[in-house]
Amino acid sequence: MKKIIDSFLQRGGACLVVCILLLLLCLPIWPEAFSQVSKEQPFKEVETLAQQIQFPSHSPDREIGVTESILNNDAQNAVSVHYPVIGLKQVDAAIQEKIQSILSEYQDGLPAEAMDDFSSSLWVDYSSYLAGDSIASLLFRVEKNDSTMSHPDVYVFTMNFDLAQQKLLSLEDILQGEYLLAICDYTREYFSHTQPYQAYVHTDAFQTGSAPVMGNFVSFTMNDKALTFYFQKNRIFPGYLGVVSISIPYSELNGYLKVDTTATLLQIAQASGTISSQLSSPVQNISIDPSRPMIALTFDDGPHAKVTPQILEILKQNQAKATFFVVGNRVDSYTDLIQREYMEGHEIGNHTYSHPLLTNLSADEVIYQTSQTDQRVAKLTSYTPKLLRPPYGAINTVMESNIQKPFVLWSIDTLDWKTQNKTKILNEVLGKVKDGDIILMHDLYPSTAEACAELIPTLKAQGFQFVTVSELLAQKRITPVAGHAYHLAR
Questions:
Q1: Which of 82, 304, 351, 442 is catalytic?
Q2: Catalytic annotation on 442?
Q3: Contact 400/259 with Cβ under 8 angstroms?
Q4: Alpha helix locations (H) across 403-486?
Q5: Phi, psi dihedral angles at 77 (to 5 degrees)
């Protein structure tokens, strides 16, 4: 045996020993190498997500997704629904399925036949948040109302997604351990020391609704600082207090949180140019001949990713100007189109922030709806809209007293939102249009762009000039006054 060992050492053992020594010397380097791989791999995953996901232009609250809308122009059955498009197929499908279920439920609740004294409305808007690099958190606010109800039906629902896996998350996916007890304790402690809620913390409704059971905490959102829970109207407090929420900082959930809330996704998207910047200085408007007939084309509810560019191109080809009454919650999602409208000399008007029926709102809510749109347009263009088109054309004394803008209605309604038919849109205008008309259309529908492709050249050949609403008012020697409505022609 000794001879065998000696022979081994002489032939190759020395080399083996040297190799072992070299490997031992390299060991301190290995952890660093593995660490480098583990750091690079998550970054690559985040970078890939950043390239897929759509972001609004300005994200002070880490918003995610661009706004899509389902709107109509029927004051008797007003529908205004807004939801985000994230850019991930399975996530977007889940959101759209939920939105469609709300629409279907609303429509199913309407009378089978039209009733002259019945009116209804559905309004859905949302907020979106990023939590860490892989969680999209969505809060939807829903308000359903009709003329038979003493108070509108108001509620919220939430959806939380793992973006990398494209799946819905429950609270069990977010937290671990005895987290329900921790949430229950924090909730009861908070409300027992907060007005006006503390007067109700000893009621059965509060004690039952805040108990440490999963069903009480199904509605939640996340951001980079806290976990927020929502309690529906009448759930734990009297209905007049509405939907109630409580935010629990992650520092209060140490040991329970099992997801990473540190974040770089938004910064990567900004660095990659996903989020656009501001432009300035629009082109000069074309000269107007006061001796020739003129009309103002107006487009509501946009911008739209596909339809608005088509309409802008048609206007450009025909040296025509128009007025775009934009919805504020779509502005940051389509900054390039807002900027193009401005740069190409069109007028941008205010069509409220989320297209509600303003006549149902308080003075503060009306002011919010108009000011939010003004701020978003001004941030992108250095121009503040001068005119307001009220959704559904509805106006009341609260609006007249609190909105410091003239109201622009219309003299020709193409009904494009209703028919979505090129021929029918053309029939509402051709042969009827006259000098001084304000024509109502919506840049949400492909059929509207198709109609414009024929309508604008035809009217141009008939001698009509296409001007903005402000230009039309000026040419007709009308000085618009805040709180007054203008529709011209007729």
A1: 442
A2: yes
A3: no
A4: 416-419, 422-429, 446-461, 469-475
A5: -145, 70
Q: Which residues pair with 159 in a beta bridge?
A: 138
The pair of three-digit structure tokens given for residue 155, joined into one six-digit string = 């509620």
- Checking if the pLDDT of 423 tops 50, the result is yes
β pairing state of 407-408 and 485-486: parallel
Amino acid, single-letter form, for residue 82: H
Q: What are phi and psi of 452, to 5 degrees?
A: -65, -35
For residue 120, give the amino acid letter: S
- C-beta of residue 478 within 8 angstroms of C-beta of residue 388: no
Q: Picking from 9-18, 30-39, 157-166, 318-327, which range would have the lowest pLDDT averaged per residue?
A: 30-39
Task: Give dist(CA 417, CA 490) in Å, integer.
Answer: 22
Amino acid at 395: I
CA distance 35 to 30: 8
Residue-wise pLDDT tens digits, 440-477: 999 999 999 999 999 999 999 999 999 999 999 999 99
Strands (E), 50-189: 66-71, 77-85, 120-131, 135-146, 153-162, 167-168
Q: pTM of the prediction?
A: 0.84
Estimate the share of the chain in helix, then strand, then coil, as percent rounded to the nearest 5.
Answer: 40, 20, 40
The amino acid sitting at 259 is: V
Residue 445's closest CA among 411, 422, 412, 468?
Answer: 422
Active site residue 304: no
Q: Which residue has the tokens 């860490």?
A: 132
Angle separating helix axes 307-317 and 335-343, nearest 10 degrees: 10
What is the token pair recorded at 140? 């939807």
Amino acid in the structure at residue 280: S
Q: How far is residue 390's CA from residue 407's CA, in Å, rounded to a whole number?
A: 7
pLDDT tens for each residue of 155-181: 999 999 999 899 999 999 999 999 999
Catalytic residue among 92, 125, 300, 416: 300
